[in-house]
Amino acid sequence: MITLSIGSIYAESRHIIGGDVYYSCLGQDTVNMTNRYRIDVVMYRDPSDPNAADFDDNALFGIWRNTGGGYIRVLSNGNDIVSPQDVFGVQDVNIDDVNPCIIIPPNVAVERGEYSFEVTLPIIEGDYLIGYQRCCRNNNIFNIIDPQTTGGVFAIEITEEAQQVCNDSPRFNEFPPVVICNGLELEFDHSASDSDGDLVIYEFCAPRASGGIDGALNNLPNNTCTGVTPSPQGCPPPWGFVAFQPPYSIANPLGGDPQVTIDPNTGLISGVPSLNGQFVVGVCAKEFRNGVLIGEIRRDFQFNVTTCEPTVFAVIEHDISVGQKEFVINSCGNTTIDFDNQSFNEQYIVGYDWTFDINGTIEKYDTRDVTVTFPDVGEYEGRMIVNPDTDCADTANIFVNVYPEVTAEFSFDYDTCVAGPVTFDDQSFTGADDIVAWEWLFDDGNGSVIQDPTHQYATPGLRQVSLIAVDNNNCTDTLVQDVLYQPAPQTLVVAPDRFIGCAPSDIFFNNLSAPIDSTYLVEWDFGDGNTSNEISPSHIYEDTGEFTVFLKVTSPIGCEIEKTFNNLILIKDKPFADFIYSPQNPNQFNSTVEFTDQSIDASEWLWNIEGEANYKSQNASHTFRDTGIYNVQLVVEHLSGCTDTAFALVDVEPQLTYFLPNAFSPNNDGKNDVFIGKGFLGGFRSFEMSIWNRWGEQIYMTEDPNIGWNGSKDNTGASAPQGVYVYVVNYVGPRGDVRELTGHVTLIK
What we know:
By secondary structure, the chain is mostly beta strands. The chain has two helices and 58 strands. The termini are far apart.
């Protein structure tokens, strides 16, 4: 079976796919020299587009004299002005019947409409043309120019020779393939049968063109060839043909590699399409009698080339795939093989046929999975067919190699007491010619591909060492063995983070001895009476002097190694830094601070004040440039070179002074005319002063400390009477402290 991936070739489709026209001569009246004909017009449309037009219920069929006479009459469903016997029907085409190995996607459909009627025509000199014109084709047709405005003519010619002998036209035998597969061999029998036994010759021919969308777009009547359904009177023959888009042509409508062609004698269309798309194809079947052309039928149809994928795949689990259908299975040392059938898709599979040639004896199975026992080492062939004896079968060719067994073996050796490399000795063997490859994994992130490797472990522990042995048939075997590696270190290595310190000194002893872990007994003696059993400990030396460090390591199986590190650590005397300062509460008015050293065992001093000022004297005096909190640092050094540091935070406080008088006389004598505060006002924030009389009425308010009250209402109105007034002052100090001053002031006149 074949699955189709149509993609976008059906997007924006119109509806016309194609059509055929046939005639049958029902009888000849030799007295009146007339023939009675049955005309069968078969139309195909794509109903997948919900906006596509339906078949025309009132289709107009024209009859013309092809030579000399022009238009004769029009026939329509239910209105034949001569002799109506109309039949019209619409049916869905079962595309699955076209090719049982193709599954059509749900958006692909073909609908068939058939118009049939009878008509009596006089036998004339010349030909008749009977036809129907309709727009439009699918928008996405690939091989013609402007398909969305191009319609078709579905017509048949009754030649003078055919009239005389009451001839029947040939009829195509098969429904054309709606979809054909890109990249796969196309073979479609497009032959026709002729009831009179005439010779039929085939060719690709040009589809006729008529009809357009002008009528629909411009609301025009169908009396021209550009209407949706041109009337027979308005658009008589001769008609034009579709214009092919190069490199496509009448004889090469599909392209392909090799090019798709039609056999002139058999009607077989063959080739390999190589490009997805929708293609208009015209197929003509010419009818010859005694070497004379007496008629022709033509099919105008849309072929859809798309990517096809087999839906039934014959596949088995394998070691090697040779091409798409040949599978190699290798068995090493096992003559019984379970064949895992991985064929798909199972919903389309109806049976299996397994065949194996075992030393001339054919063994057959019909189950999905099979188990076969082969007699000995050797090469065997088989075959598995999915859906045997059907057109939709697929075959897997099987090649079985039964090889001798390979066995991975190895031994190892190392000094269990003193750390050193582990030596691995390969002892693998095979019934084949030779072991050709080795893969070692040492369980510490390292490995090797040589036959007999050595490996040094950095840490002890239980290791699961694996060896994969490969013989010349690519057969493998794996062996995993436990290697317990717990020797004592070959030497003891200690790296303190420093060798010289100032008491008290915290020293980290980094134990670089290997191998070693928590299963080992570790014994430290730091030389000052203290010990530890940590692998890499830290130790604080409180006293001064030189200290000898001792280390002993005992492995889990009792192997010991020890070492004494003479005078490893030197601890020196250290001073004690301290100082005092005065005054304790300096401010901007008193910003010089005296710093007095209180250190012990100091020989040198370094003061760091305000991050810039550095004094090397024992005591220091410093004047701060501004208020704020300062970190003052004193570093002292001992004669041993050891240092100590003392810190202090010195707060130089901002001071604020603000005083108000208790009386003023606004008499403009230049003396005490304004009630205003005095003092150091640096750093004032959110200042407000208000004046109130004894009845609780606000007389004056200001937010500027530099503007006072002049004794008038709001400093602009009538003068306030002599008397006692209440003032309220609110402000925020430099460090955000909220303050309020209240009191009385006497206005004197």
